[in-house]
Structures are given as structure tokens and as C-alpha cells.
Automatic annotation (TrEMBL), chains A, B:
Protein residues bound to substrate: Y120, R134, Q230, Y234, T339
Names of the cofactor(s): Ca(2+); Mg(2+)
Domain Fumarylacetoacetase-like C-terminal: 116-400
Record organism: Salipiger aestuarii
GO molecular function, one term: metal ion binding
Name of this protein: fumarylacetoacetase
Gene Ontology terms: biological process: homogentisate catabolic process; L-phenylalanine catabolic process; L-tyrosine catabolic process
Pathway assigned in UniProt: Amino-acid degradation; L-phenylalanine degradation; acetoacetate and fumarate from L-phenylalanine: step 6/6
Residues of the active site: H125
Record Pfam families: FAA_hydrolase, FAA_hydrolase_N
Cross-referenced NCBIfam families: fum_ac_acetase (TIGR01266)
Length: 416, 416
């Protein structure tokens, strides 16, 4: 596959994230309210305003949920129509008036998140975290090579790129402390992930192949994590408040159709998977990922580079497993891949791993970091690299704000 | 507080679940589509059809979410108006035509569940389960006396009373097995809980007192649980598919206002709570609860009797804790109390506890039960008992259907 040319020249420029091959979906506000858009070159097209050939009801709300629910035939028809409108010079005049410069718009949540599930499915990440907490010999939990381990997260805390993230308060208790205390998180972290978005829902068990067909597209996802809150709360029922402050997603839904040329296999299996989890073909994607960290007032430095192909389980496998109990899935469900780490030290998807549990701080733009500091701006980048073109996601960014002042009602009374 | 009399005589009958003091909210279908209703005596009143005195937009959808979002002043106004309409004989003629016999209606989900959180907050339950799995000395996790332990459940799997529940498939691996297998759950269980419904949402941290004021009402809740799926999957990130088959709620939202006369204190604390979790007054309720089990074709037998006052943490404390990280809460969020067990052997809220991990089967209507069998009908009952009246919840019931036949794509290929 090579570059498809658009009459919009910026879409054909080398390195452009949004060529005609991409056509990712978002929601933008150019000053007149939220609208559904598709990114092309350095612009966004107001999709509802052009001759899209579909039922206008699909564009009634500024959110992609209705289109997602309409299913794969509608997804294919819309993509083909937008290719025609933006690729064929005959439509230039009619379409141009509905283009707006990306630099002048605010980007909103591209869809309403129904429920949010997060997984733990990169082997290097699970091995790193397990080694830090339990030692190298017990790094991987016994079920890890058999189950795409997942847990339910909090949909209400999912925000779009650009939203500030306030450092959380929580119950903290270190291994040496006698009792827990209520304090701001001191080990605030990122998690580099890819999010898969369920387009069409399901009732009952769904095969890996059918699960793959349900996925509308992907976003970059940063699952902000309070490691000290997590350490004290997570036994026996898993992370809860440690993961409920915010999860940031990139503003553009990159469709499964745009990523199709970049399919790659999951890695060789050390232990055979049960038949229900086996894949009929390659279901991961070759997507380069990186993490940038800019301390307040300093330049950004890339602190990690990895690839989505490092995953042990694909989103299709995760979604299939999600349905085994009969769990209904719905349009707008968001599945986080789990933190994506590669084998190398420079390919780790969390500061927990980069600083090895805080013991080996990294240097970022001249300052030391074990975990995130107030004022840090964290940005995830991602792109699939084609033959003379790239499929970009747009940045997934957020700045850490200081914790709120302590509310009076949380304070210890003086004791005698 | 004593019985408030209605002109509808069935509401004044001894033992009636729905006297004028109660006025629980539900959604019913008498054959002409779903409508918002309030239960009174042996009838349901079509609330949208009477002179309720509120904005008609609150009744546009057959769901209580809009009323809940409107806040405590609207809740109080509606309750006062319904008391007047159903209590004052002057309204009998105008109101009677909008009453329908409960026996002739289908009851639907009373509200749209935004997100579902489940807790682990009955001390007897946590102690029983901990003793079964880890022995009496390590029964309570170290954090249990400090944190209302919770995890996110799956909102899409919440169903209304009367819905059948199909035995799930899942990955199972017993302690003696070499490898996991994909099979129907063999240890399917109930969990007797009370569900608290968030009426008004929040951003940022909320005190226990403010959290209490956000709660619109309560339902009975059965969190169906696959113990064998849970045993293999739940480390390290908590239960996932074990809890995603179904959660059944009773059809009537019993309001916090109706339950106000039944407030009781949480129990004495063995370990001081952090100040943020301390309660300004009694925030539990004295609600008698019981569990009935009817094997297929046999009579129902009550297998457990307990009380909501057995909880160690109230719903207000749980909701407060839920917000500490800054987690936004929304109208329609559902918080399960966690399984409610009392101190006695006859007061256990799950078969896991009643049969002590399956080792001591109980006898139900002449048959043995360690866990649920296909065809079993399970029903939760609950009521607060006042002076000459009771505040009932309506039954919370479901029948266990056999697992679906095994799909071809989950089968082991023949190996040589």
C-alpha cells in the first residue's frame, strides 16, 4: 500500500499524520459548538455538512457512537465516500468550504465511553512489574500465559487529550508504616497503552474473528496510575481508586480499516492457548509508540520508544475473552491494551518500570524522575509507517496539576 | 413513625410491602409500552399521567434517571405530591384511572445503570471467605479495617428481577489440574447485597455527609458469581469474567426518604477510621433480608436470614471513598454493598459460605446444594419493619438456565 493522494496538498506532505489513507474520526469545536470531523492533512472536515450519503440521524449528536452502532457496512460506505470526496478533485469546491484548520479548533471526546476495561497483556510489562514486586522467579502470575488478564476500569474518568490531570489524594501505607494516612499520591505514573473501541455490541460468547470485526478503531491511551494508592488497596480485589483519577485518550479514532495494512502476528506461545483464544490470522498491528515528558518550563524529552506489536494478546483476543461469561458488550466500550513495554530498557511503558520501582531515577531534560512531578506534561505519540505515508493518532497529552488543598473534613482532629 | 393511610385500601393491609410510607419507583409495562410508576398497595400508579406538578421532561423517557439527576429538591417535591395524591381522598377519582394492578404488569429496569461498583464490606462475609481460603488467622486482608474495598463491575450485565441467568462458560483450573480448560462454571453462586443508586453526580472529593445526600435510593442486588472462574482469574487484578454474567436488581427503587426512619449506626471500630471516612450520624439501615432457593419443581426454602445493619461500611462511606481519587460519579451509578452476612451460620449471604467452600453441602427442599444447579430459582427478599407497616423492596429473583451448548470454535482439535 502506498500514499493515496488528496487534492488537499497538506495531506500529501511527507510525514503528515493524516493522509487520505488515514481518515481518523474525531469531534471538534471551531467556535460554533461540537461537530463530527475527519482529519485530513492540516485540516478537519465537518463530516455532517458534506454529501456523506448516509442517514442524517447518524450525525445528529456530536459523537461517533451512532455511526459505530450502525455497523461495518456503514463504516465501509462512509470511508469510501470520504475517500472519494477528499481524493477526487471534482469535489474540491463543494468540500473545501467545510474544511477548518486543525490549528484553530478544540478537540473533544470523539465518542461516549460506555464502559472501560483495562488489560495486562504485554509480557515485558508483566515481567518487569512482577520482578519489581515479587522477584524474577515469580514474575508472571500462573494464569498469565493462559488468560488475557483484565479488570474493569472507570468510564467516567476517561478524558480527551489536552485535559489537565490533578494529582489524586488517597490512602497510603508504606511497608514500614504502622497505619495508613490520607495524603496526595507520591508515586503518580503513566501507562502507555492502545485503546480499542467496540463499534457493534454483542450478547453471548463471541469468537476471536467476530470480536475483531466488532472493533471500530483505536486510540492512544494513557492510564494514569497512583502506584502508592494501588499498593495498599489492590489486594484482594484489584486496583480501584489508583486507576480512577483519569485515563487520557488521543482525540482521533484511527479506524481498523486504516490500520489493516499493518497487521502482524502475536508472538510465539510458550504455553498453548485454549482453542477459543487462537487467532485465525494476524491481529496485532505494527504501530510505533513513544512517550515524551516535559518538566514544567523545560523541553520535552522522549523517555520511551516501543511498538504495539510487543503485545502478547491482541484486542480481538481480549474482547473474545471478555464475552466468555456472557458479558454483553456495547457500542462505545473501550478496551485498554495494558501497558506496552518492549524488551529493552528504553522501551518501557511506565515510570514504575523505567525507574525500576523508584530505585533508579531517570534523567529528563536535566532533572531526575522516579515518578511524575507537578507541572510535568506527558505526551504519547503513535504512528504506523507505510510506504511513503504514515497513519498517525495525534498526540495524547496531559499536564499534572498539584493535588487540591486538603479538605477540612479529611483532617485528623488533634488528639491528646 | 406509623402507617400513613391511603384511600387505596390494599396499601393499608397488614404486611403490605408498598404502603403510602414507601412509594418506591419502578418502570412497568401494562401492554402499551414502558412507563414510569410508583408502587402502592397491590397497584402501580402511572406517574407521568397524573398531576405530578413537575416538568414533563423528567418523565419523557421510561427511566428514573432524569428525576434522579434533578436533585433532592425535586425528589422531595415528587414524594410530597404523591403522598397527597394517594393519601388524600379528594384525589381518588382523578388518580384511580391511572392505577394498574401489579399482577398484570411486567416490571422493567427502573433506571439506566451508568457504572456498577461492587464492594466487600460485611465483616462476617470477609472473615468467612478469608477463613475458607487462607485460614482463620489471615482471614481479613490488612487493609480491610481501613478501606471500604471495592472494584468496578460490569454495568451492561445488570438485569431486572425475573430475568433468567444462564450458567457461564469460562477458564477453570483446579489446584490439582495441570492446565486450565474451557468449561461451564461448576461453582455458580449468589451474593446477597443491597445496591445504592447515585442520584446526583459529583466531580472531585465528596464527604460522607455529602455522599449520603447524593444517594437516591436502594434496591436488592444479587451479584451472581462464578467461584471457579474467579479462583483462577482473580490474581493479581481482581474478579473479571467471574462477575460479568449477570447482576440482578429488584424492580423498585426504595428511596432514601422512605428508609430514613430506619437509620442505624455502623458497628464499633476495631481500628480507628481515617477522619475522611467517619460518619456524622447513623448511615446504615435496619433492613431484614432473606434468601429463598427453589430447586426446579420443588418448593422454595429460605436458606439465609440477615440484616443490612451487619455492614461494616455504609453506602455513604463507600461513595465517599469512591471519590477520593477525584473519580467523577454520575447519575445512575450503582454501588453494591458487598455480600451481607451475619454472625450466625444461618445468616450467610452466599452458598460459598453456607456450604463452607463446598465442603458442607446444605439441604434445600430435600436436595443437597453446595452451589447452584440448573433450574434453581433464587429470590432475595428485603423489608424495613416499622410500627404497623413495612417498607418492602419487592422480590429480586432469577432462575439458573443451563450453559449454552459448546460453540465449535472453542473446541479442542483432535491431537495425535
Amino acid at each position: 500500500m502506498s500514499l493515496k493522494k488528496s487534492w488537499l496538498e497538506s495531506a500529501n506532505a511527507p510525514g503528515c499524520e493524516f493522509p487520505l489513507n488515514n481518515l481518523p474520526y474525531g469531534v471538534f469545536d471551531a467556535g460554533a459548538g461540537a461537530r463530527m470531523g475527519v482529519a485530513i492533512g492540516d485540516c478537519v472536515l465537518d463530516v455532517a455538512a458534506v454529501d456523506h450519503g448516509l442517514d442524517a440521524a447518524l450525525f445528529a449528536d456530536p459523537s461517533w457512537n451512532a455511526v459505530m452502532a450502525a455497523g461495518p457496512e456503514v463504516w465501509a460506505a462512509l470511508r469510501a465516500r470520504l475517500m472519494e470526496l477528499l481524493g477526487n478533485d471534482a469535489h474540491r469546491d463543494a468540500v473545501s468550504e467545510h474544511l477548518v484548520a486543525l490549528s484553530g479548533v478544540a478537540l473533544k471526546m470523539p465518542f461516549a465511553v460506555s464502559e472501560y476495561t483495562d488489560f495486562y497483556a504485554s509480557r515485558h510489562h508483566a515481567t518487569n512489574v512482577g520482578t519489581i514486586f515479587r522477584g524474577a522467579e515469580n514474575a508472571l502470575p500462573p494464569n498469565w500465559l493462559s488468560i488475557p488478564i483484565g479488570y474493569n476500569g472507570r468510564a467516567s474518568s476517561v478524558v480527551v487529550s489536552g485535559s489537565d490531570v490533578r494529582r489524586p489524594w488517597g490512602q497510603l501505607k508504606g511497608p514500614q508504616d504502622d497505619a495508613p494516612r490520607f495524603a496526595p499520591c507520591a508515586r503518580f505514573d503513566l501507562e502507555l497503552e492502545l485503546g480499542a473501541i467496540v463499534g457493534t455490541g454483542s450478547e453471548g460468547m463471541v469468537s476471536v474473528a467476530d470480536a475483531d470485526a466488532m472493533i471500530f478503531g483505536y486510540v492512544l491511551l494513557n492510564d494514569w496510575s497512583a502506584r502508592d494508592i494501588q499498593a495498599w488497596e489492590y489486594q484482594p480485589l484489584g486496583p480501584f481508586q489508583a486507576k480512577a483519577t483519569a485515563t487520557t485518550i488521543s482525540p482521533w479514532i484511527v479506524t481498523a480499516a486504516a490500520l489493516a495494512p499493518f497487521r502482524v502476528d502475536t508472538p510465539a506461545r510458550e504455553r498453548d492457548l485454549l482453542p477459543y483464544l487462537r487467532e485465525p490470522g494476524p491481529m496485532l498491528y505494527d504501530i510505533s509508540l513513544s512517550v515524551g515528558l516535559a518538566p514544567e518550563g523545560a523541553d520535552e524529552q522522549i523517555i520511551s520508544r516501543t511498538n504495539y506489536s510487543e503485545m502478547y494478546y491482541s484486542a480481538a483476543q481480549q474482547l473474545c475473552h471478555h464475552t466468555t461469561s456472557g458479558c454483553p458488550m456495547r457500542t462505545g466500550d473501550l478496551l485498554g491494551s495494558g501497558t506496552i513495554s518492549g524488551a529493552d530498557q528504553g522501551a518501557r511503558g511506565s515510570l514504575l518500570e523505567m525507574s525500576w520501582g523508584g530505585k533508579e531515577p531517570i534523567t529528563v531534560s536535566g532533572t531526575q524522575r522516579s515518578f511524575l512531578e507537578d507541572g510535568d506534561t506527558l505526551t504519547l505519540y503513535g504512528a504506523a509507517e507505510g510506504d511513503g505515508y504514515r497513519i498517525g493518532f495525534g498526540a495524547c497529552t496531559g499536564t499534572v496539576l498539584p493535588a487540591t488543598p486538603q479538605p477540612e473534613w479529611t483532617k485528623q482532629e488533634s488528639t491528646t
